[in-house]
# Entry
Amino acid sequence: MSAYKGPTFESLGLSKPLVEALGAMAIRRPSQIQISCIPEILKGHDCIGGARTGSGKTVAFAAPILQKFSEDPYGVFALILTPTRELALQISEQFSALGASMNLKQAVVVGGMDMVAQGIALQKRPHIVIATPGRLADHIQSSGEEAVAGLRRIKFLVLDEADRLLTPGFAPDLETCMGVTAKGRDRQTLLFTATITPSVLQLKDSSKHNVFLHEVETNSKISIPDTLTQSYILLPSHVRESYLVSLLSMPENEKKSAIVFVNRTTTADVLRRVLRAMEIRVTSLHSGISQRERIDSLNRFRAEAARVLVATDVAGRGLDIPQVQMVINFDIPADSDDYIHRVGRTARAGRTGESISFVSEHDVSRIQAIETRVGKQMDKYEGVRESDVIKNWLQPVSNARREALMDIEKEAAGLVGPKKRKRRA
Amino acid sequence: MGTDTQKRDWFSTEDSEDSDLGHGSGSESENEVKRSAVKKVVKEVKKSKPEKSRKRKVAAASEDDDEDEEEKDVSRAKVAKRKTAAPVFEFGKRFESSEDEDEDDDGDDDEQDEDSSDEVEHMPGASSGTDGDVKDVLRRLSTKELEDNRARIEKTGVVYLSRIPPFMKPGKVRQILSRFGELDRIFLAPEDPKSYARRVRFGGNKKRNFVEGWVEFKDKKKAKLCASTLNGQIIGGNKRSYYYDDILNIKYLPKFKWHNLTEQIAYENQVRQAKLRAEISQATRENKAYIRNVGRAKMIENIKAKRALKAEAAGANEDASTSKKQGESEIEMRRNFRQRTVRDRTKSSEPSARDKANEAAMQRVLGSIFS
# Structure
């Protein structure tokens, strides 16, 4: 600690209680993006922050907001918008950890949860509102002026994962949300993401005032951490499940915590059942299950009750689960930015991690696009032996898969409910 | 009397329910002569296959994941039994087993089965199978035993309770009805889990509630007598008892046996088994094709490697160039796979119809961000 000569959080202008709270979270030295963004935000500038995954973007906006808040605490002080519900909940946790000493009250307004309770919470004017655009727009339209009034005076509007939020799919809801918030110089707008798209960059040029831009610092603007090793396995698409099971049950991977990304909720469901049949402690996170189950399974994974999380892109962004050592791309995403966010779930904050992509015969051009985007050739993953897959896994896994498909069909017909997870003592 | 679909729902709840939640019914079938024998069998099976039960049970694909550990062993025994018996009556047993979980872990016998030619009974030591230790304990029933069995089933009668007094448990039902004669099985359909959850959430009673039930009498005359006597009457008994003023609604179900309750599910289960078998054989075929292809790929690679070696050995000979040409022609693409589309946000690609509709809103949002 004494050898460290660079800037500290105190020198960036944060107050003592905040620095202590950061210390309690084991964050002692500011990262690059924090060093550059925190003073600018404190000065009152709008800000676009781009930094690689797991580099502390959340703290980069949370800390200065709380600093400003402690100087003038009132009503709804900041509104934070995120693309996914789980991310909103995670940011809320970080705010409560940071703001514990200043009696911070916050409301999480996300879909899939009780709307009336959220409306009441909004009426009580929490200090920070963390929301997904759809549900907040719903409240603005239907919960009445009382709930919305607080939002008219916000000092900060944060768009986390801004490149995802600023896509046409979110536009109508975002418009509703922005319609009620404070306008012009009364409000500071902060945009954060790991992958800055040209449309986000255009915003800076089109703006009338001074917008501070922090971009990824290193050469060729690679948003992937150095500590991440990326590799691929070339395989036929119909034996991917067997390869996955083989990969997950290799002796060196047996203890590792892994996220398996797929492109569709149905694939996630099938895969969860298959892995469960192969006695791998697995849970899943996708939009096909209820919000309660989603939170539940994420918590199960966080608490390491489950070793493998099968997820769609809903878990692709922002989620910070330190123990994840391996990210497996069961399907290759169409968008190379999605790939960057996916593999960014591991190798966070200087830890090591590996990502393995399953490249089937249809995915070659996708993986090439990703390699150009990332600016790096991937290596072939040599760990899984074809003979091992054929000998040990092919038949049982394909049987389990067929059975899983039948179960899904049966459940879809409404004949039986889903099997309950067996509780362990 | 409930419809078939309703019935299925209860049974499935039973199947899926965790053991700690308990089951729809506690049934204590006492008539079994062979019960002790069955227990012995179960113990033997347990001894012989202590840990395997939870391992890779895909082979025994018909089993539930959620059964208890001990249950598992029992069900293994059952699987073996099924192999020799007609698939029709597998389900009956399974249904019973889920019903009997509460009291102990023994398997039930198949007394309700009618298909006499296929009937099989547990008996230790009587070997007839080929499948190792489990089948050692199976043997065909003698004709006399079969006749006895059929006569016994013929004699039974089932009554239907259209409502169960609130929170009355199977034990109490048994106590009330057994005044008329010996009972065999009881099944009480548990209430909808949603209504249970709602009640508990609003501070209601946390006890299990049942909506309707079936009770099997060993003697149908007793069943008729019971139904005609108790139907529409208050339960009575001690004036201060909880159920004193509650009314029982009982009907004797003519020409109805216990197995009629389960045959629908038995049939469905049988269909499912058949489908699963077909699916698995299909999967096996695909796997074989894959393995064959892998072998072929290896062979081709080896041939290529050998050729390359030969070419090297030939050194500067002019045929090296020809063999090289050959190699090149082999590398050429044999098949082109359709590649999945790559989406690139940096270039503005053709937007979808929905995106176009939102484009105007998008522009307004972008304009207002740093307003």
Observations:
- Chain B is about 50% helix and 10% strand.
- Residues 1-9, 11-132 of chain B have pLDDT under 50 and may be disordered.
- Chain B touches chain A through 57 residues (CB under 8 Å).
- The CA atoms of residues 96 and 233 of chain B lie 30 Å apart.
